[in-house]
Amino acid sequence: MYIVMASAECAPVAKAGGLGDFVHGLARELARAGHRVEVILPKYDCLRLEAIVGLEKACPDLWVPFYDQGFACDLYRGQVDGIDCWFIDPQAPQDFFNRGVIHGEPDDPDRFASYARALLEFLHQTGRHPDVIHCNDWHTGLIPVLLYETYQALGLNRTRVCYTLHNLGHQGWVGEYILHQLGLDARRLMTADRLRDPGNPHTVNPMKGGIVYANAVTTVSPRYAWEVQSTAQGMGLQETLRRHGHKFSGILNGIDYAAWNPLTDQHLPQAYGPESLPDKARNKQALRQRLGLAEAAKPLIAVVSRLDAQKGVELIRHAILHGLERGAQAVLLGSAQDPLLEAYFRVLQRETAANPDCHLELGYDEALAHLIYAAADIMVIPSVYEPCGLTQMIAMRYGVVPVARRVGGLADTVFDANDAGLPFAERNGYVFDDLTPEALESALDRALGLWFDYPEYFRQLRLNGMAMDNSWARPARQYLDIFARIRVQDSA
């Protein structure tokens, strides 16, 4: 099968969050299964060029219609961890992808509309006929619209689209002008059953367009698929998702077992695995030395997270302070884009600076993240909502017991140690439901109590988590089943 993956990100060359890990992990697994996979990205000026092998200009001066004129576009190709990648470099006066960032610009809808048009023009002009274009998040939501409104009549009539929603908190809302920019009929498309945003009749919703026009729609965990249809987590798209429920499903993400493996992790001073779990203690000792924490017979609570409202920042702060009160040590590694949240954690950093049992590292350091996972006993993940979440999967891979709020992908992967309805071998952490300090304390206290009073049971929880299969093998098979099914469908 010939699969094109369209995305704003692909780790490690262009990564701003979990989307980059998803595209990288799934693309590698699909290619490993013998399929022809090409990832097509914008050519940002902030690409990690050292991660691209054999980068070369391979398709110069591609003409892309845009507004009443257009722009020339160069395409480069290379390999990223064995994945065939193409990079779109529009020669437009707006310098769409020469901003020093992947996304977060005021004109992001224009930037990614130009990318969508250029991607399809590239497929059309080079005679490529992928079986499936796998689109990801709002940045690519207009690709299925353009495919079926414009490019199907130009010859791309065998290509089908799978569209994956990673986070409904960002839908790419933009004015009607974007449709004129792409040569689309705004009068026909700005209807309740197509691209008109449910909350604003004069706004185009690219994510809604992707849902409506794609042949299959997925999201990144079964629980989140239910939440976005049935609760406020749908962020206004509940009715649209229910209307298209026949083609909507949740597939749990995986993690890269090559990158996240305590037996082979080059960032660790001491390798370990299920058969050598006591060696994990050497990593805790190394982390304490690096961060200036006291050597003590105490459990280590960790938080590795973006610091934004979605992640439950008030509960993160509460978990750190409550854990310290209960005789634990606490480490945080996280970065905030919001200046107010940055200031919020700077205050906590100053308040705990003199405490030998606490360290807050505000920023992101890949090597330090690996060491924290290897050192920690408990990982706190109190998300307000969490489409999938990778933190809990990585934590369990490294023998860390997660304490998590039972939402989204956390509910699909973390199973409470006191859940009598499950065999003990399937229990791997502690969960809570209410978004309150009291609910968090209840779960965290149970985890700490087990560490202090029943160390053998705590050790078994670690091993239960390490035995879980959160690799990309199963999700890749599920995506291939969807791709195979939509290949035989009639066009939209």
Helix % is: 25-40%
**What gyration radius follows from the Cα positions, in whole Å?**
23 Å
Distance between the termini: 20 Å
If classified by CATH, what would the architecture of the largest domain be?
3-Layer(aba) Sandwich
Q: Extract low-pLDDT stretches.
A: none
Number of structural domains: 2
Given this structure, which CATH class of the largest domain is correct?
Answer: Alpha Beta
Structural class: alpha/beta
- Which band does the percent of strand residues land in? 15-25%
Helical stretch tally: 17
What strand line-up does the widest sheet have? Answer: 3-4-5-2-1-6-7-11-12
Tell me the overall shape: globular
Major beta sheet summary: 9 strands, mixed
Here the CATH topology of the largest domain equals Rossmann fold
Q: Can you say what the CATH homologous superfamily of the largest domain is? A: Glycogen Phosphorylase B
- Total number of β-strand segments? 18
* Mean of pLDDT: 96
